[in-house]
C-alpha cells in the first residue's frame, strides 16, 4: 500500500487498503469477540463493561465524565448505567458538588464482578495478541496513540479532508 503524499493525488482509494476502514473492521471484530465472551460469561454488554472498568479505575464519576473517558455518547452511558443499577452492580447517588447531577460508583457486587472480569479481559487480550512479539505490540500501541492524537487534532481543528 502506498502512503499519500502531496504529489500522489492520483492515488485510487482501495477500501481493503484504506487504514480507517481496516481499523473499523478490526475494531468491530475484536468488539464482537469480546462482547460475546462478556455477555455469555458475565451478562455484560460492551458499554456496561466499559462503565464498570472506568469506575473501577477512577472511583465515582458523573455520567458525562464516564462518557468522555470511554468515548461513548451520553445516552449509551445512561442506558448502561441504568442496567447496572438494576443489577445492583452500580450505585447512583446525588453529587454533593452539584445537586443537579449524580455520581456513579461500583457497589460491592460491582467491585466483585470487576475483580472476576478484569483477569478474563487480560486473558482475552493475550489471546488476541498471541503470535505478536513484544516489540510488535509496543509498536502497535504507540501507533494507536499517534493515530488517536492525530484524529483528535483533526476533530478539534474542524478540518475537512482536502
UniProtKB/TrEMBL annotation:
Q: Where is the HTH marR-type domain?
A: 1-149
What is the name attached to this protein's record?
MarR family transcriptional regulator
* Entry superkingdom: Bacteria
Q: One Pfam family, short name please? A: MarR_2
InterPro entries for this protein: HTH_MarR-typ (IPR000835), MarR/SlyA-like (IPR039422)
